[in-house]
Amino acid sequence: MKYYAAVMFEDTDQLVDIARAAEAEGLTGVALADHVAVPEGFASVHPSGENPFSHTSPFPDPLITASAMLSATTTLEVLTYVYILPMRDPFSVASQVATLSLLSNNRLRLGIGVGWLREEIELLGADPSSRGRRTDEMIEICRRFWRDGTAEFHGEFFDFGSTGMYPQPEAPVSVWVGGKSEAALARAVRNDGWVGMNYDLSEIHRLLDRLGELRKEAGKEDGPFETMVIPNAEPSPRLHDKMNEHGVTSTIAMPWYPGDPTHASIEAKRDALGRFADAFIRR
Questions:
Q1: What's this model's pTM, rounded to 2 decimal places?
Q2: Of 113, 126, 128, 117, nearest to 39 (Cα)?
Q3: Adjacent-strand bridge partners of 111
Q4: What rounded mean pLDDT belongs to the chain?
Q5: Is 29 helix (H, G, I), strand (E, B) or coil?
C-alpha cells in the first residue's frame, strides 16, 4: 500500500518542511487540496454531506505548492486531491503540468475532478451543468499537447487550429480521476487511476467491482491502474493489506487531523509522521 499524507489547512511556511519530513519517513507522497476562490455563504454541499470549510479557509494553489515541495525533495510524489479541472482553461493547465513534470522527474500525480462547489465554478466563468463534458475535452486537449507538442481540437467547448506548446513532458503525465458517479468511474478508466474519498467498506467493494467491470469492458483489466480510497474504519496495517488484496493501491494517511491545534508545530507533525511510519510502513 502506498501512503499519501493529507496536507490541508496548514501554515504555508510549514509546507516544504512537511514534504521533506514525509519523504524522510518513507511515505510515497503528499496530497494537496484545491480551491481558488470560495464564495461566502455558499449553499453547495460537499459529497461527504458536510461542509468542511468556509470562505476563510486557506487553500494555497496546489500546483505552486507542488512546485516548492517537489523542488525540495528527490523521491516524494505530490498528488492534487483533487484539482478542479473544468473551472480552468486547458492551455494553462497543460503548460503548468508539463513544466512541473519536467522539473520534478515526473513526480506530479494529477488528481482531477469536476468539482462540487457550484458557486465557485460559476465565479470562475464555467457552467456547472456541463462541467463533466468540459472536463473530458480538457483532458483530451492536455494529453494531445503533452504527447505531440502541437495540437488542434474541435469540440463543444474548445475549438482551435494547430497550436504548439513546448517543451513536452518526458514521460506520460499520470491522471487520476475523482468521484464515484458512473460518469466519474468511466472517466477514471479512460485515464490512469481513480481517486476515492471516505467510504464504508461495503461501498468500496461495490465501487471496486464496478471499476473492474468498466476496465474489462474497455479492455484495460490487465494494464496499470491506480486506485486510491479511504475506508471508513479504524486504520490498521491488516485493514490496508486486505484493501490492497482487493485492488486498492494507495490511501490517504492522516498522521494528524488537518487543523488540529495539538499538531500546530512542525516538530509535532514530524513526530506524528514518524509514529505513522513506524506503525504502517516500517512494520
A1: 0.96
A2: 117
A3: 176
A4: 97
A5: strand
